[in-house]
Design brief:
Layout (H helix, E strand, L loop, with lengths): L10 H4 L1 H12 L38 H34 L10 H32 L12 H10 L4 H16 L2 H9 L6 H30 L3 H19 L4 H8 L7 H9 L9 H10 L4 H8 L10
Helix pairs in contact: 2-4, 2-8, 3-4, 3-6, 3-10, 4-8, 5-9, 6-8, 6-9, 7-8, 8-12, 9-13
Length: 321
């Protein structure tokens, strides 16, 4: 009988989810001291990068005065957080809870369960972070009445459309696939703001704390969804792949109605059609496909899936996030 190496770690210690779970208390935002939001608020700094605000490219925007432009940038920060919170609450959290039910062939060992519960805590804390940061902006920028419908974002509507007509196990797979799309794209969504040195320090720091957590979540979802996908038969794997493409496409789609509300805060009267016409003449923004490609490699799926998300272009697929 071969003698096992005495230097090799036990299997449970080599498990990636186990390692993440054990380091959770040292790496996540919820375990750190609360950020002094007002202390990091600089009233003289813009709240959002101008180049990420599509309404400022529309006719008439050049006539806006400094205060109106700054008000639009503050409203853009509120919209950004509203979309982030909607992704967490409407897409990711339900999928985490679904994976804990035992209805799906997903890993259910102690490490997997711990990682899922930790992710749920993180995501609820991220929603609280968004709420607290936006609260400071509302108060300091006099935007208390600006609200966004959580169901009004393209990715949330995309999930509703994808699961229409499905039920039971198929519906569960669609929801997990969309959450996987979220966790392979949200870090890129956060990174631009997290690295913007010319905006409100409070906004940049808050977003960077969130982004750091999401890098761990991407690993959790790769591991868990990998175990799920490999346990499916061929028809269900095909359904999962199609839902994943639909989810990735929905995350690329523009959101027009929220930007109408943002523009109105600066006195700029536009409609969704104005933004759609603007977006139709703009190339889709570059995306970091690295996390997605790692995922596809883990699942043994062709990287052609990345091209499918580009080909399945939706109206207004541009930087109007």
């Amino acid at each position: 009988m071969p003698i096992e190496s005495t230097t090799e770690r036990p299997a449970f210690e080599r498990d990636l989810l186990g390692e993440l779970a054990r380091r959770w208390g040292r790496r996540v935002a919820v375990k750190k001291d609360e950020l002094d939001l007002d202390g990091h608020f600089d009233a003289g700094m813009p709240d959002f990068p101008e180049h990420l605000v599509p309404v400022l490219d529309l006719p008439g925007a050049e006539k806006l005065d400094h205060d109106d432009r700054r008000r639009i940038l503050a409203a853009s920060w509120i919209a950004y957080n509203a979309k982030t919170a909607a992704i967490e609450d409407e897409v990711i959290l339900p999928a985490c809870r679904l994976m804990l039910t035992g209805r799906l062939p997903v890993r259910g060992d102690d490490n997997a369960v711990a990682a899922l519960h930790q992710t749920i805590i993180d995501e609820h804390y991220h929603i609280l972070m968004c709420h607290n940061a936006v609260g400071v902006t509302r108060r300091r920028r006099d935007l208390e009445d600006l609200e966004f419908d959580p169901k009004g974002w393209s990715v949330v509507r995309g999930l509703e459309e994808a699961r229409a007509g499905t039920s039971g196990f198929e519906r569960d797979l669609v929801e997990i696939a969309f959450s996987l799309a979220a966790e392979t794209t949200i870090s890129g969504f956060l990174s631009t703001l997290a690295s913007a040195e010319d905006i409100q320090p409070m906004n940049r720091i808050t977003t960077d704390l969130h982004r750091r957590d999401e890098s761990g979540h991407a690993v959790v979802f790769r591991e868990l969804c990998g175990s799920l996908y490999r346990g499916l038969d061929a028809p269900d794997q095909a359904l999962f792949r199609d839902a994943l493409v639909r989810g990735l496409t929905a995350f690329r789609a523009a959101d027009f109605e929220p930007w109408v509300l943002v523009a109105a805060e600066g006195g700029l009267g536009i409609g969704p059609d104005d933004l759609a016409a603007w977006a139709a003449n703009r190339p889709a923004p570059a995306r970091d496909t690295g996390p997605l490609q790692l995922l596809l490699n883990d699942l043994g799926i062709s990287n052609d899936l990345v091209d499918l998300t580009r080909q399945r272009k939706q109206p207004g697929d541009a930087r109007a996030h």
